[in-house]
Predict the structure of Octapeptide-repeat antigen.
Amino acid sequence: MFSGYFLEKECTKNAFTDDGYFKTGDIVQINDNGSVTFLDRSKGLVKLSQGEYIETDMLNNLYSQITFVNFCVVYGDDSMDGPLGIISVDKYLLFISLKNDNMLEKTGVTEKNYSEKLIDETLNETIYIDYVKGKMMEIYKKTNLNRYNVINDIYITSKQWDTTNYLTPTFKIKRFNVFKDFSFYIDAVKKKYEEKLSGSSTGSMNNGERCEKKDDIKNGSDNENKRISKSQLNGLNECAIKSEEEDVLEEVQKALRKYEEKNITQGVQKQLRRSNGTSMRKAREGSLLNSNERENDINGKRYIKETVPEEQQVNA
């Protein structure tokens, strides 16, 4: 194909395998019959925080099927639970879609004012966000994709996309230009996920308020949530540890009391058994003694009767 990139040794090294094959960057499936099915581009493969991979280029093409969507650019990384989307819409086609769905009265959009009404500041209000996300969900439900391919955070823009900003001469999307210009929104969504991990999540970025500009987001985000100070957190930890120690001590004391009560009871029982045994032995010994004495007395009398004359027995 070619020997390499001019004066770019590192790029050349990364672009070829060790045995000289060029890495096209395509993700394909080798079928049982030996044919190859193209799936995606490797550069569009993104790993989320759960370890799940999503194909951003595939999602871009999927959600661009909506009639009023010109372009969809999906962003995600390993700090996020799910992808976000930058949605470029056509004002007139969006107006037609709103009209067909009887949404003109709710939105206040008319044929005369839709061009002035459907601007970025207005489009990122709840009613439009929910409407566009509803259309995206309709597309998603027709697929067999897992839930990680659902886009919960979107930024809608009606600005013109052309070769001077976000498109190449062949009308491919310059993703890095998009990510750079809409970094204020991407940073805000990523901050939401960071707060979720720290236990102070503020929910979806599309919460009904208009998405503010970059400076407003940065200035306002510092006071969104009151966090527990380090000293307060240490105090809570000490209380929790102390409480746990007291519970453990109480359990040990209970066990000791039960053990002592058991030993006392066993000791009393032994003493009773020992006392009863002694009494019974004495009783048995006394009984045997009395029995022997009676037997000796009877034998003595029998002896006297047999050896002594009758008249002497009477005197005796």
